[in-house]
Amino acid sequence: MKMKVLGFIPITKNQFIAYETILFSFFFMLTIFLFAYDVPEYVDDPMILFHAKYLKYVTLVLSFLTVVEAQYYLNKFIGKQL
């Protein structure tokens, strides 16, 4: 059984689970890396410091949204199967 994800991508349940697993793993590993890495203090550019500070939280939010998206579409798959 296929379902359209994002309105135009036909995908099966197993393909969706693989896609979401890869996407979540990417954002999760990126989040871990960014929280473990500190920007050197000798960087004087305030724009770089601003982006380095908030990129950590953006990746954390993207990881959370990936989990929410997976739950939403998996519930739709289950609803179609019933």
Fill in the keyword field for this structure:
single chain, 82 residues, mainly alpha, 2 strands
Overview of the molecule:
The longest helix has 36 residues, at 46-81. The chain has a two-stranded antiparallel ribbon. It has two helices and two strands, in the order E-E-H-H. The chain has helices at residues 13-36, 46-81, and strands at residues 2-5, 9-12. The mean pLDDT is 80. Strand 1 (2-5) and strand 2 form a beta hairpin. By secondary structure, it is mainly alpha-helical.
In a few lines, what is going on in this structure?
With 82 residues, the chain is mainly α.
> Helix segment count?
2
β-strand percent reads 5-15%
The percent of residues in helical segments reads over 70%
Q: What is the total tally of β strands? A: 2
- The residue-averaged pLDDT reads 80
Query: What integer value in Å does the Rg equal?
Result: 17 Å
The largest sheet is: 2 strands, antiparallel
**What structural class results from the helix and strand content?**
mainly alpha
Shape: elongated
- Distance from first to last alpha carbon: 12 Å
In the predicted model, the low-confidence regions spanning at least 5 consecutive residues are none
Task: Give the SSE string.
Answer: EEHH
Q: Trace the largest sheet across and list its strands.
A: 1-2
